[in-house]
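Q&A log
Question type: sequence-to-structure
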Amino acid sequence: MPLPAPVDYVAENSRSYLQYTEFNKSPVHRVRLACIISMLEKSVAPSGGKVLEVRCGTGNIAIPIASLGYEMTACDIHAPSIGEAFGRNPFPYLRFLCGSLGAVHPAEYKAIVLTEVLEHVPACRDMLAAISGSMRSDAVLIVTVPNGWGVTELLCRPSYALKKIPGGSILVKRVKAMLKTEDLTTGNLCTPHVNYFTLGRLALLFHACGMEVASFSRCFFLWPLWETFLSKRGCPSDWPESDFQYSQRLPPGACAFWAFALRKKQ
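Response status: OK
Response body:
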């Protein structure tokens, strides 16, 4: 795996595309979105090809990407999320589809985005292999994944276990309301994490699916812990950026999440 590429911290309202996403309110998700867009811009110009997002949720990634001029298709299997995304979409060159990977044709796209998805999918290897096997040889696959053995993920595991039992998702939602936590990532409450990745496991997964890492970035250390459990409570205003800058000096395996630009092995 190559050395991690440096990443800039992204402040609230500091990019034009942030006006089109709820992620503007979240340091973690702003930086994740910025990583995706940076990798996209280095691989595909807005006029140079179509972009696909798989498991797009409510459109917080797809809509800001489309605002930059990309012709975009985004799909998800959760109909309420697609309905919300469709209602928020102001761009005629962005279309939302309700369906699985079989509803789209990856070979039509120069870039495919799969962000915060693999940790939710039991058959993640099959999913990644299906994308790799059907995408163009010159396309890029942009993947983001949380560190499954980072502090935040370890402390979230009881909530993931609750979501697997009847009524558990409702209980988790109530606890989050008590903690004043805001979840911006999905409209689907029944999506616990089932895979806990390390960099080593991801490297093996990518290799097994015929992919190689062209570049990757790592972001944050402890700030995601606060944002996950206490996102609406006050904290020092410089803490998110300080934590981010600290993460850029840490070994990649210690950071909270990773972003990868993947190519098919030639």
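Response note: The chain has one domain: 16-156+193-264.
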